[in-house]
Design brief:
By secondary structure, the protein is mainly β. Helices cover about 10% and strands about 35% of the residues. It is built from two helices and 20 strands.
Length: about 220
């Protein structure tokens, strides 16, 4: 039904700018975030506010948040107050064959400056992402996670234009045995009070202890 409605709106309003205005108007009068799409079974978006948990209560999700889930048994936990400009994609809703299962995202109260954003793109299964409180994103931060990746970011970090790439997104075979040699699990840990300068890339299995400065253009 969601696909039918979206296609009907595109037919009636071919202009993207008009569709955005319509969406914003409906959001304003309904009080509901229309940028939340969930397909599959047992998916949960949990808002933690004043010690209470609100499960799949989309009215509790700020309108500057976009969440798109395609798959089963995925959980997103957002602790209030929730920063603006967070975009979370789990699976690929446009492609039915690319569904992602058993993924976990938890974001404690962080700060995203006015022109910055956090983009989390999780593909495949069994990924885990935890961002601790008081972390600040000042430019653009993207997180790409593939299969069985884990990313933990400690509290009170400062993140500029940084990319976390925690999967190869392709297979490498041993030429003699024909065995895949790069699909092992990976666990990336960022300690507390770390400062990431512009154009930094963090790869799988990186271990960064607390109180570190990652300089401009670094690859870790």
């Amino acid at each position: 039904m969601n696909d039918f409605i979206k296609n009907a709106i595109r037919f009636v309003l071919p202009s993207k700018s008009l569709r955005v205005k319509l969406r914003n108007y409906i959001q304003k009068i309904s009080g509901r975030n229309l940028y939340i799409f969930v397909s599959g079974a047992n998916n949960k978006i949990i808002i933690i506010e004043d010690g209470k948990e609100y499960v799949n209560d989309f009215k509790k999700i700020p309108q500057a948040i976009k969440i798109n889930i395609s798959g089963n048994n995925n959980t997103v936990r957002l602790h209030s107050p929730i920063a603006k400009n967070i975009y979370i994609i789990i699976g690929t809703p446009e492609t039915k064959s690319h569904k992602s299962n058993d993924n976990y995202v938890e974001i404690f109260p962080i700060k995203i400056t006015q022109s910055a954003w956090l983009n989390i793109n999780i593909q495949r299964n069994n990924n885990s992402l935890i961002m601790r409180e008081e972390t600040v994103i000042t430019v653009r931060c993207s997180m790409l996670m593939g299969n069985a990746a884990k990313l933990e970011i400690g509290r009170n970090c400062l993140i500029a234009n940084v990319k976390f790439a925690l999967n190869d997104f392709h297979k490498i075979y041993d030429i003699e045995t024909n065995q895949v040699i790069n699909q092992q699990k990976n666990h990336c840990i960022i300690g507390e009070h770390c400062w990431f300068a512009n154009d930094t890339t963090v790869l799988k299995n990186a271990q960064i202890p607390e109180n570190c400065v990652i300089g401009l253009g670094s690859i870790v």
